[in-house]
Amino acid sequence: MPRYLILKLQGPMQAWGAHTFEDFRPSHLFPTRSALLGLIGACLGIDRQDHSSFGQLEASVEFTVRMDASGVKLPDFHTVLDARKVDGSVNKNPIVSQREYLFDAAFTIAIGEKSAAPIPLEKISAALEQPCFTPSLGRRSCPIARPLLHDKTPLQADDAKAALALVLPAGGLIYAEGSLPSAQPLRLRDVPIRGRKRQFATRVVYLHKEPPCS
Length: 214
Prior knowledge:
It contains 4 helices and 11 strands. By secondary structure, it is of the alpha+beta class.
């Protein structure tokens, strides 16, 4: 039977990066695959340039996201002085941008273990409980408000929706990848392509609306 590790994401602010348009940095309404891989990778202590270790992580897990509280999306105006350029030099001009954040949102994540996963759920659980690098909710300015793990022991269920139904608050909007298709597909470009440049491939996410438990 499939195994799942349950993750809780709660905090006053979250930001799950969508496509950047020059100085406007929007946020998706739910955590992206690239962001969740980055969060777990930080807890495991994987360096951003360690493409081999990230490849092992990507081959180990799939994510199903349940929205427990949608929160409110609002923009924030940023001005940064002495910002660093790509080459490491200091930009003499101030950087002005707008960034979107989700306020008071909450999500439950079912981390599914793929077949012959190079990194087992037990290792991921231990890292989430005692992270190597400080985890955040999408951006460093978005701290977590509770422990990441719902339970450090993976649970067994028929599928990711069944696993999420075991964790309160049950029901709500679910974004699933992989083995849970639905009549409402959503295409996202959030699968990281490891290399010198930050690029992303496309995946399909399936929407499910589950009734709340009575």
